[in-house]
Design goal:
- It is built from 18 helices and 13 strands.
- The chain has 449 residues and is α+β, with helices and mostly antiparallel strands.
- Strands 1, 2, 3, 4, 5, 6, 12 and 13 form an 8-stranded mixed sheet that branches.
- Strand 1 (57-64), helix 4 and strand 2 form a beta-alpha-beta unit.
- The chain is globular.
Length: 449
């Protein structure tokens, strides 16, 4: 039987990958079944080795293996090693495959009678994984575990479907406002961090600052005031929430894109780009004052801004809107296998991936700032990050709303947004069209979250 995966073994290559996954997994199961007979035939077994082999319980984990990404490999190597240190009675066996191939590999293994105790998750796979019983509901484990409580976890970090919880986010990201402190100082303006401290940080304040900080040469914006992303639904939801709007009703039966609040929110963001013309430049190059993005971009900042000391990086929470500032969290969760031989071991691995023991490894990957467990202190990797901002936003977080027809929704909204920015569609016309599209998509597949 294959031993638990050390960092060295993991860096050397994943155990079961590519087209041979199902055969390799079958072979692994056969070896596990024959191990006791092989031990009986050994001429001089050591007592401690026999005991270890008999007591060890395998935890089979289906993993996304980014083979060419050294940070990914090192971080997960450490995550696997610390799990083994915490659970010497468990033997973690990692089946690695690419992100794009993982759903097919999971399905092929399931069809061949090979089940995993833990599965790397992604929201777009959730429905198919539930239908095929590749994963299972973790609410009974949350309720029965003496070490954790359901209340320990932010609701926005739980991956849920039809009222049941299937995953916890080992990696989660919100969105912040990152700004160029130098540009604000040169202009004699309060920066977003200072406005937040004085209770003045609002969407209107952001727009007014952007107007002052935008510089043009003819028709070209040579220094942009801000970069926002209302063309992406993962950002749009936060902009709508700030005005008291939602994508759909509480039961996810009817979209609400034609509400007055939604219209007001979208009109504000259309005007930022089309009327006020304050979006442009490059934050990385120092020609953009404010950048609405997630902490996953800190690695990019460190690679491109910090080495040359291009400017001083600032960080602030999302601005306040008329209805507040709820933050959308985008998650990558871990799932519990649906019919694995060691579900208790799978649960221990899932808990490990959202524990304080791995937060530094997750931070190295660009996560770790928004943690699933409220009792875990977020991690940062730079001196310009503010943990208090992450904690405040986590306390005001919601999961990014998604539907089964999400890819269609995303593509259609980006097309609609482009037409608004070209002046080909008014905001009411655009929202009427989206309302009709969403009515069909909701009727066909409904919501995931």
């Amino acid at each position: 039987m294959r031993k638990g995966l050390s960092r060295r073994a993991f860096l050397g290559g994943s155990a079961l990958a590519g087209a041979g996954l199902l055969l390799a997994a079958c072979g692994q199961a056969q070896m596990a079944e024959s191990a006791p007979a092989e031990e009986e035939m050994a001429e001089e077994p050591k007592a401690e080795e026999s005991t270890e082999a008999m007591d060890a319980k395998v935890v089979n984990y289906l993993h996304v293996d980014l083979a060419q990404n050294e940070i990914w490999q090192n971080s997960f190597g450490d995550i696997f090693d610390t799990f083994k240190e915490k659970h010497p009675d468990l033997e973690l066996t990692v089946t690695g495959t690419s992100f794009g191939e993982l759903p097919a590999k999971a399905g092929a293994a399931q069809a061949g009678g090979i089940a995993f105790d833990a599965v790397y998750g992604y929201f777009a796979w959730l429905g198919g994984f539930i239908d095929s019983e590749i994963i299972t509901n973790i609410d009974p484990y949350l309720a029965a575990d003496a070490d954790v409580s359901p209340d320990d976890f932010y609701e926005a970090t739980k991956e849920r479907y039809q009222g049941q919880t299937y995953g916890l986010a080992w990696f989660s990201n919100g969105k912040e406002i990152w700004f160029n402190k130098n540009l604000f100082t040169e202009a004699g303006l309060k920066n977003p961090e200072e406005m937040e401290a004085d209770g003045e940080w609002t969407w209107e304040a952001l727009l007014e600052s952007a107007k002052v900080l935008t510089k043009v040469d003819g028709d070209e914006i040579v220094q942009g005031g801000v970069q926002l992303y209302a063309n992406f639904t993962s950002y749009l939801c936060m902009y709508a929430w700030a005005y008291g709007a939602d994508f759909w009703d509480a039961g996810c039966t009817m979209p609400t894109f034609t509400s007055d609040a939604f219209r007001e929110a979208v009109q504000f963001h259309v005007d930022v780009g089309l009327v006020h013309k304050v979006m442009g430049g490059s934050y990385i190059a120092g020609t953009q004052a404010m950048f609405n993005t997630g902490s996953f971009n800190v690695r990019t900042f460190e690679a491109n801004i910090t080495p040359e000391a291009l400017f001083e990086i600032g960080m602030a929470p999302m601005p306040n809107g008329p209805a507040g500032r709820e933050i959308a969290l985008a998650n990558n969760a871990m799932y519990l296998g649906g019919s694995g031989a060691n579900p208790d071991g799978g649960w221990e691995f899932l808990k490990h991936t959202v524990s304080a023991d791995v937060v530094d490894q997750v931070a190295a990957l660009g996560g770790g700032r928004y943690v699933a467990n409220k009792n875990v202190t977020p991690a940062t990797t730079t001196d310009y990050e503010d943990i208090d901002v992450y904690l405040m936003q986590a306390a005001n977080s919601r999961i990014t709303p998604t539907i089964f027809m999400q890819s269609e929704f995303n593509a259609a909204w980006q097309e609609t947004w482009a037409e608004m920015m070209e002046g080909a569609l008014t905001v009411p016309e655009a929202l009427d069209r989206t309302q009709g599209q969403l009515e069909n998509w909701l009727a066909e597949g409904g919501c995931i979250q």
